[in-house]
Specification:
Number of strands: 8
Strand content: over 45%
Order of helices and strands: EEEEEEEE
Largest sheet: 8 strands, antiparallel
Structural class: mainly beta
Radius of gyration: 21 Å
Number of domains: 1
Distance between the termini: 10 Å
Helix content: under 10%
Shape: elongated
C-alpha cells in the first residue's frame, strides 16, 4: 500500500489560429497546474515489477488565451479562458522499482472517474460589443472516457 501526494504541471496544445489571408499560423497553448491525493494497492508481478490500482482526488487549474485576427496577417489576444477541475478517479498501472526508494510508473488515468469543471471566459470589447465575462459549470461520471496514459517518477519515503 502507498498513500501519496501528486503535483502536475503541464502545457498543452489547444488549437491553431490562422490569419485571414492564410500566410501565418500560431499555436494556442494552455497551461495547467494541479495537486492530488492518492492511495495505491500493489500486487507483485515479478521481481521489482508491480501492478497497482489507485484511487485519487485531484484539483487542478488551467488557462489559455485565444488568438483573433488583427488585419490580414497578424494576431491579437482574444478570449482569456481559465478554470478549475475537481476529479475523483480510479486508475490501474505498472510500477518498476529501480531501487527500494525510486519507482518508474506507468498509469492509465480516468478508467473510472467523476469530474466537475468550472470555466470562466473573458471576452475583450470588439467593435460595438462590450467586454463580457461568462462562467459555466459541468460535471459527469465516466467509464474509460478521457483515458490518458501517464509516465512518472516516484520517490517512496516509507518502507
Amino acid at each position: 500500500m502507498a498513500v501519496g501526494l501528486s503535483l502536475n504541471v503541464g502545457s498543452m496544445y489547444m488549437s491553431t489560429a490562422t490569419s485571414t489571408d492564410g500566410t501565418k499560423k500560431e499555436n494556442v497553448m494552455g497551461s495547467t497546474l494541479g495537486v492530488g491525493l492518492f492511495a495505491r494497492k500493489y500486487s507483485e508481478i515479478t521481481t521489482n515489477l508491480y501492478m497497482h490500482t489507485q484511487a485519487g482526488l485531484n484539483y487542478g487549474s488551467f488557462s489559455f488565451t485565444d488568438k483573433d485576427n488583427d488585419g490580414l496577417s497578424a494576431f491579437k489576444d482574444g478570449d482569456k479562458v481559465s478554470g478549475t477541475l475537481i476529479n475523483i478517479a480510479v486508475s490501474p498501472g505498472l510500477t518498476y522499482f529501480v531501487s527500494p526508494k525510486w519507482g518508474i510508473d506507468f498509469s492509465l488515468n480516468n478508467i473510472l472517474s467523476y469530474d466537475m469543471t468550472t470555466t470562466k471566459t473573458e471576452s475583450p470589447a470588439a467593435g460595438l460589443f462590450p467586454a463580457s465575462t461568462r462562467e459555466t459549470s459541468d460535471g459527469g461520471f465516466s467509464i474509460g472516457a478521457g483515458l490518458t496514459p501517464s509516465l512518472g517518477l516516484f520517490y517512496y519515503m516509507g518502507n
